[in-house]
Design brief:
- With 204 residues, the chain is mainly alpha-helical.
- Helix content is 49%, strand content 11%.
- The protein has 2 domains: 21-84, Fe,Mn superoxide dismutase (SOD) domain (Helix Hairpins, Orthogonal Bundle); 96-202, Iron/manganese superoxide dismutase, C-terminal domain (minor pseudopilin epsh fold, 3-Layer(bab) Sandwich), CATH 3.55.40.
- The protein is built from 8 helices and 3 strands.
- It has a 3-stranded antiparallel beta sheet.
- The protein binds fe (ii) ion.
- Fe (ii) ion binds at residues 27, 31, 79, 161, 163, 165-166.
Length: 204
């Protein structure tokens, strides 16, 4: 079964003015679709055809000869996770379990916000900013290109795409402004809560 481009969890203009319909037309309709199509092309006729995307990512991450497959599969997964990480009228400070975990691990939401923004802005070239769960802690990290927390045994909670194609049409080279808009207006904290709860035993 070939992988399919999942639909966006919101309409293409739902994140305006912080992320335009034009950006989502290209980012979801062209870039994300291309990662899915490339994954399908590369795994055709191989045992990976019957695997889940997650299993393909975890396995190919350990084998440099499979880098092309890893890059395409990880980017396919990362983008789906990125769309889920956003919602209309999102962003700002979370509440409940997520805020509690942030307070415990970062010493307050303000400190988390600074750390997340700094990771996203300082990632040299293309990559991703993440909030992840690892060894009873939530932490911020940045990864280059397609690299993905799953490949390192971490649980992804939140993703921010900092490839230029994520923001150039709306913000040109001003990545910091895009990250501010992501944090203040787009983050889907419900998504973070769901993933945190699914792994709640890890932060006990
Ligand atoms: Fe992207």
């Amino acid at each position: 079964m070939a992988f399919e481009l999942p639909p966006l969890p919101f309409s293409r203009n739902a994140l305006e003015p912080f992320m335009s319909e034009r950006t989502l037309d290209f980012h979801h309709g062209k870039h994300h679709k291309a990662y899915i199509d490339t994954t399908n092309k590369l795994i055709r006729g191989t045992p990976y055809e019957k695997w889940s995307l997650e299993d393909i990512i975890r396995t190919t991450a350990k084998d440099t000869s499979k880098k092309q497959i890893f890059d395409a599969a990880a980017q396919a997964w990362n983008h789906t996770f990125f769309w889920q990480s956003m919602m209309p009228h999102g962003g700002g400070q979370p509440t409940g379990d997520v805020l509690q975990a942030i307070n415990k691990c970062f010493g307050g939401f303000k400190k988390f916000r600074e750390e997340f923004k700094s990771a996203c802005v300082s990632q040299f070239g293309s990559g991703w900013g993440w909030l992840v769960l690892e060894e009873h802690e939530i932490k911020v990290l940045k990864t280059p290109n397609a690299m993905n927390p799953m490949a390192k045994g971490q649980v992804a909670l939140l993703a921010c795409d900092v490839w230029e194609h994520a923001y150039y049409l709306d913000y040109q080279n001003r990545r910091a402004e895009f990250v501010d808009a992501f944090l203040d207006h787009l983050v889907n904290w419900n998504h973070v809560t769901t993933h945190l709860k699914a792994h709640a035993e890890q932060i006990a």
